Amino acid sequence: MQYIQTASRAALSRSSSAKVTSDETLIGLIANDDKDAMRVLFARHNVRVFRFLVRIVGNDATAEDLLNEVFVDVWRHAGRFEARSQVSTWILAIARYKALAALRRRPLDELDDDACEAIEDPADDPEISVQKAERSALLQQCLQQLSIAHRQVVDLVYYHEQSIDEVAEVIGVPPSTVKTRAFYARKRIAELMAERGLDRAWL
Q1: pLDDT along the chain (203 residues), means of 10
Q2: Boundary of a domain, candidates 109, 141, 174
Q3: CA-angle at 47, arms to 123 and 16, nearest 5°
Q4: For residue 189, how many C-alpha atoms fall within 13 Å in the half-sphere facing its CB?
């Protein structure tokens, strides 16, 4: 086992950049208890997974706790990953399970918009940043008025750029159901945005 761990760390360090190491390779290394690979995978996915969690549970502190739980599960169960989907899809499926379990344990609180705006584009000037923040806050309000099922689909398709088949795998429904939910979610968001004087270009 010690030889395998040493070889795993050496394989990772030989990569010219962490970015050229595929998620699948990292999972294989993690399955052999490679902590360096775990750090790389976490750095690569933690922001997007956090945002996914916070848009479901509506609270940044809860999302942070769940984020830790998600990656603990990734560490513990990396050896069970069967590569039938992308690693990112597998991680999001774990995150969704954790988030829904958290929602069942407490009422859904109002979304913490500050958490969604935690990472800003440094190229934006103050005026653009304010406009983006205001627009994002309004969009988040619209999203919060959707059902959880519709909100998940919107989040996975538009924020995480998952395909219909990938979304179906994450939430455990047929692709046709994903398409139907996406259609009605888009329609409802368009109505809510129109009520607030926003266009629907983001969709």
Answers
A1: 47 50 93 94 94 87 93 94 87 91 63 38 46 60 82 83 87 91 87 72 48
A2: 109
A3: 80
A4: 26
> In the block, which residue shows the tokens 């916070």?
54
Where residue 55 falls (left for φ over 0; alpha for ψ -120 to 50; beta otherwise) is alpha
**In angstroms, rounded to a whole number, what is the distance separating the alpha carbons of residues 171 and 164?**
11
Structure tokens at 125: 């000037």
Q: Answer yes or no: do 105 and 130 share one domain.
A: no
Q: Is residue 187 part of a domain?
A: yes
58 exposed, middle or buried (CB, 10 Å; 0-12, 13-18, 19+)? Answer: buried
What are the structure tokens assigned to 108, written together?
A: 């859904």
In this prediction the pTM is: 0.59
Give the tokens for residue 185.
């979610």
Token output for 154: 């919107």
From 85, 109, 133, the end of a domain falls on 109
What's the rounded Cα separation, in Å, for the pair 148 and 195?
21
